[in-house]
Design a protein that fits this description.
The chain is an alpha+beta fold and 99 residues long. The protein has 2 helices and 6 strands; from the N terminus they run E-E-E-E-H-E-E-H. It has one domain: Conserved Hypothetical Protein Mth637, Chain: A (2-Layer Sandwich).
């Protein structure tokens, strides 16, 4: 999966966001765009969507998360600290239908 890349202090995760959904959800992996597709509840206003993404991924991984690119875009890159690529993919597989 090219959307998740190992770096020295964690992983970088490329995501594509669909706002204004009924709930936070990781939909799957888009092989064409090479991004993990997620749905979020928050609208893209005043940083609410970004806050929800950081909060949900922090809760999911039990690790600090920040958005390193795409603050005003639907295409974002997250940095998840202190998690290996294998651990991150295991979390996705256990919680969602990511293959």
């Amino acid at each position: 999966m090219k959307a998740v890349r190992q770096i020295e202090d964690g992983v970088l995760v490329d995501i594509e966001v669909s706002p204004k959904s009924k709930k936070f959800e990781i939909v799957g992996y888009n092989q064409w765009r090479e991004k993990i597709e997620i749905k979020i509840k928050s609208p893209p206003l005043k940083g609410r969507a970004n806050q929800e993404i950081v909060k949900e991924f922090s809760n999911l991984t039990k690790a600090p998360v920040e958005i390193v690119s795409g603050l005003k875009s639907q295409h974002k890159t997250l940095k998840v600290y202190a998690v290996s690529k294998a651990n991150f993919l295991d979390i996705l597989k256990s919680k969602f239908i990511i293959k």
